[in-house]
Each structure stands twice: as C-alpha cells, then as structure tokens.
Amino acid sequence: MRKNIVAGNWKMNTTLAEGVGLAKDVNEALKNAADVKCDVVICVPFTHLAPVAAVIDGKLGLGAENCADHVKGAYTGEVSAPMVASTGAKYVILGHSERRQYYGETSAILKEKVNLALAENLTPIFCIGEVLEERENGTFLDVVTRQIREALFGLSAEDFGKLILAYEPVWAIGTGKTATADQAQEMHAHIRGVIAEKYGKEVADNCSILYGGSCKPSNAKELFAKADVDGGLIGGAALDAASFMGIVTAF
Ligand code: PEP
Fold this sequence. Notes:
Blueprint: E1 5-9, H1 16-32, E2 39-44, H2 49-53, E3 60-64, H3 81-86, E4 91-94, H4 97-103, H5 107-119, E5 123-128, H6 132-136, H7 140-152, H8 157-160, E6 164-167, H9 181-199, H10 201-206, E7 209-212, H11 217-224, E8 231-234, H12 241-248
Parallel strand pairs: 1-2, 1-8, 2-3, 3-4, 4-5, 5-6, 6-7, 7-8
Helix pairs in contact: 1-12, 5-7, 7-9, 11-12
Bound molecules: phosphoenolpyruvate.
Phosphoenolpyruvate (PEP) binds near residues 168, 173, 174, 235 and 237.
C-alpha cells in the first residue's frame, strides 16, 4: 500500500540558526501530535542538513533539495548524493521546476541525479508539472507524461518503486493559486495510468504521488481527500511549524 506523505521544501530560506529552530519546532510538534496519519519530511538547504539531523528524531524525515549529477570531483560548488547521504538525510527533491527553469536542468541531467540518489539509498521526491501556457493550451497531460518518460522510464520496476512523485503545476507554485482538487485528481490519476502502462498496476498503485503548489492548511483536506492524491510537497507553508502541522494533520 502506498504511503501518505507530507514533505516540506524550505527552498533558499532560513539562516542556519533559524533553520535549526524551525526543525526543532516541527520535530516537537510532530512528537506531540496525537494522530498523525502520514510520513513527514523536511527538505532543507545543504548547509542545514547535518545540524538539523542532529536535532530531530526518527519520526521526522530529512531530505535535501537537490544533488549533483556527478559522484565526486572537480565540480566546484556542487554537493553530491553521497555527501547528502552522509549527513543522515534520506530524501532528495529532484527536478523541482525552479531547478529546471533557473538552472537548466534537463531530463538527461535529472536521469543521472535520480540514478546517483538511488545508489545512495536516498529516496528521490521527483517533481513534474506544466507551466501556465501548457495548462491553457491543453497539453498539460502530455507534458507531464514526457517528463516522466524521459527522466524515469530507464529505471527498473524495482527502482521506480523507490520513488516519490510530486505533481507541481508551475503556475500554482508560490502564487497563492492552487490547482482545484479536481484538477489535481485528474493529473494524479493520469500519472498513475502512465506508470501502470510501463510498470504495471501494482507499481502504479504503490507509488505515492504528492501535490505541490500553494497547498496550505485551508485547502489540504480537500486535496488529500482525492483518491490519487497521497499528500503534499509544501513550500511557503512549510516555513512555519504551525502551518506545516496544519497540513500534516489534514489527513
Ligand atoms: C514548492 O515549491 O515545492 C511549492 C509547493 O511551493 P509553494 O507551496 O510555496 O507553492
């Protein structure tokens, strides 16, 4: 059975002291929460990984927001999957639209990153999603199909089964404009169908597909109630422990 998951993406926010404080707050809130029905993960800047790992306990998962497409060597400024894993992190966001848009990450690059992350037993949270123009011109289902095929369909069924997917319509990220629960469900069901065609129904049914894009405590319940929405990847609302927990407890 697939898991319900709420993962925070802090992006390039918080100083180290602020980040450690926020992680402690989330960790404490999670420990004290009565009935949590999902896995909870925070994905934090590279600089924060080891110090955050030291202040959270096993109930709260930790991830990076990216990793390099090489294992080691002369790649100044990059952080590799083995480095991420060495901090105690267990997850890594890959293919976020901001990485695709601002840092030119292509499907070929992402394919490498996914392979390197899996080799370190990191769980990729792999992001896919269309831009506004593609939503409006009706090509959004095809765009997302292509993103999945190009970056992920070289994987074995066993490795594909280790991924978490996150559908994040780019027009909904940080804009306050959320996809409706029906729009999310339509895309998530489509994604599951695309996976089933390649890997079979069991792999598709076991894949957690998160929704991301202006998800907050006020809309999380409706989104998570949809059959194929298995949780959320949360940006802005993950920067406040109470808001983040408001989403975690929406399950
Ligand atoms: C994100 O960038 O992963 C995201 C979902 O951001 P926000 O929740 O702020 O729209």
